[in-house]
Amino acid sequence: MALEHAILVSLLEQPGSGYELARRFERSIGRFWTATHQQIYRVLKRMEADGWVTAVEIGQEGKPDKRDFTVSATGRDVLTAWLHEPVQPEAVRHDLAVKVRGAAFDDAAGRAALIDEVTRYRTEHEDLLARYLAGEKRDFPDISSLTTGQRLQHVVLRGGIAYERMLLDWLDEVLTELRKES
């Protein structure tokens, strides 16, 4: 997936400024597709030049004017074409998994350090799961009345929740194995 497609999806969900897009990436989309503020602004400029998005200047009192972006008909066509393309399985790169395998060749001190790292990593993902669950409760309190778009947003969030739960289970298993005496 290209950053352009993630931006198109986000702007179709809700038009906004580059700053607002960057905040959305930090808050939700960023767990599936990351981008810096600079990348988002650079890609928005290119998308505007290509006619995929349009921008309107909005004056703000006491602040610099902002540019509010929306998806153009061309942008919708680009997104539709991309949605019809087949998706290939992603190659997974997971540094921690390689470290766990490498622990077989390390001494007890190295495994103890890895236990600390896995514990720290687990805490981060436990916190992320809690944020996902809080977001689900906040954003989807009544799933019986969701629109199609909201249902699709919710199912993506549920995928993130399921992934975090699976990862926490795996990390618990890793910790159990690392703590065993050889």
Automatic annotation (TrEMBL):
Transmembrane intervals: none
Coiled coil location: none
Family annotation (Pfam families): PadR, Vir_act_alpha_C
Domain Transcription regulator PadR N-terminal: 7-80
Residue ranges annotated for the Transcription regulator PadR C-terminal domain, each copy included: 92-179
Protein name, as recorded: Helix-turn-helix transcriptional regulator
Provenance organism: Actinoplanes oblitus
